[in-house]
Amino acid sequence: MAKSKKTIFALVVVLIVALGVSLCACNDSSANNYYNTVVSITKTKTEGLVDTYSITFSDGSTYDFTVTNGRNGVDGEDGTNAKITVEDLYEAAKTAGYTGTLADFINENMQVTATEAVSSMVAKAAYGTVLVVSNFTKSGASAEEYASAGSGIIYKLDKENGNAYVVTNYHVVYDSDADTSDHVSDNVEVMLYGSEYLDYAIPATYVGGSMTYDIAVLKIENSEFLKSSNATQAVLGSSESVSAGDAAIAIGNAKGSGTSVTAGIVSVDSEYLEMTAADEKTAVTYRVMRIDTPVNKGNSGGGLFNAQGEVIGIVNAKNVESTVESIGYAIPVDLVKKVVDNILYYNATTGEKNGYKPVLGITVSGLDSKAVYDAAKQKSVVKENVTVKSVAAGTAAETAGFKEGDVITKVKIGGKEYETDRMYKLIDLVLLQHVGDEVEYTVLRGSETVTITWTVTAGQMT
Question: Distances from the Cα of 118 to the Cαs of 123, 235, 238, in angstroms?
Answer without folding.
Answer: 9, 16, 19
